[in-house]
Amino acid sequence: MTRILDPPTFSDSPFFFDRRQLAQPQREVHHVQPHSNPVVAYYHPKGVGNYHYGERHPMRPQRLELTNQLVLGYGLDKAMTMHNPRRATDEELANFHDSDYIAFLKRVTPKSAQSLTEEEQKYNVGDDCPVFFDVFAFCQQYTGASLAAARKLTSGSADIAINWSGGLHHAKKGEASGFCYVNDIVLAILELLRYHARILYIDIDIHHGDGVQEAFYSSNRVLTVSFHKYSADFFPGTGNLSEIGSDLGKYFSLNVPLQDGIDDESYISLFKAVMEPTINTFRPSSIVLQCGADSLGCDRIGSFNLSIAAHGECVRFIKSFNLPLLVLGGGGYRQSSVARCWAYETGVLAGVTLPDDVPDNQYYEFYGPDYKLHPPLTGQIQNLNSKQSLENIRVVIREKLRYLNGAPSVQMQEIPPDLYGFLQSEDRSTEETKEEMGAQGLEIRD
Ligand code: V1D
Ligand code: CA
Questions:
Q1: 295 C-alpha to ligand 2 centroid (Å)
Q2: Which of 198, 318, 321, 378 has the fewest Cβ atoms nearer than 10 Å?
């Protein structure tokens, strides 16, 4: 079988700026069968929930343990392949990040950070992004999981890959931002770009996916769409409708700025009205979906009114396009809601309907007093999104999509003759290498 793929990506990052109009593709690579019964791979790095941002910080990695225990309690491990991925290496992180920033993250400790001033400012560590014990190992774990999940998709051995510990969409090339240190999403998209012509990135965290948008702002191979609360005093303060991308990436960034209190019906209807034509126009070869759970009602930072069912409906809708799908976590500041939401969405992706009674698990007491997967939503916030403003967003986005004017073409190349050596040099585990070799229809050497 002749295989074709993109050239490898290196740290000088050819994919950030598409410097030329690409010629017609020789052929498109379709790795995956349409998935009425998709193969789902689930990534949970062991111990990722044991890190602590600090007592007064809203981000609690422990929510990842709650999620994983709920997934196991519901028996979803029987419906997916389960993986404890290795940590990302410095070289892998340097595919996007500046090496001085990586070196800083690697050496800084809570003690040494006490006497930092210039570096603290340069790398933006402090209140939002504290230097906590083993922060670098935390970054390596969640990023290693997103990279392994992306490779699982490119190898064709799964249709859907899930990493709830990933999705840290604010991290920049050379600095931390908004609780995020390493941008696992950008790194995973770069991995997908080695094999996939066009990647669609969708972000339903209540915050704007600024780090991912910025990384691919000039690229026509990655289309980013973020739904978020947009106001001058809400972090990060970007994501206006008028941010559309630049150079070859013009019209390849879409933003859906919303106000407090949006409800299930308006959100779902707008989400579908935006995503359906986006997918049909851009025709992505794979999709990355960031599922930040701070867009749920009753979040400690977010101020939308979404139910878990509505959040999950967005996931179900994207799944229905039957494209290779990488699903990631993100924000979410009420631990029990985050775990409920992501366990429910794991069920949606694996095609398993979950009973409403929370199963016995290590964190059962977190789900009281009702112990239900879908507790009734309380404390709704006034919906400040008028019908008119939502209709205006819909019209403006559809207008922008007209400028996309067909998907860009991507030049493909013959596969390197020594794929095995090439793959091994990419620091893959033997399992990953063999999986990819098999999927490429190539002989596996021992
Ligand atoms: F409330 C806090 C208490 C302690 C430390 C931080 C916060 C906090 C709440 N909201 N910090 C924020 C946001 N930062 C600011 C800063 C004030 N400065 C001038 C800026 O408003 C940051 C919110 C980050 C949200 C992260 C995320 O949910 O999008 C996420 N996505 O993936 C992982 C996390
Ligand atoms: Ca968002």
A1: 8
A2: 378
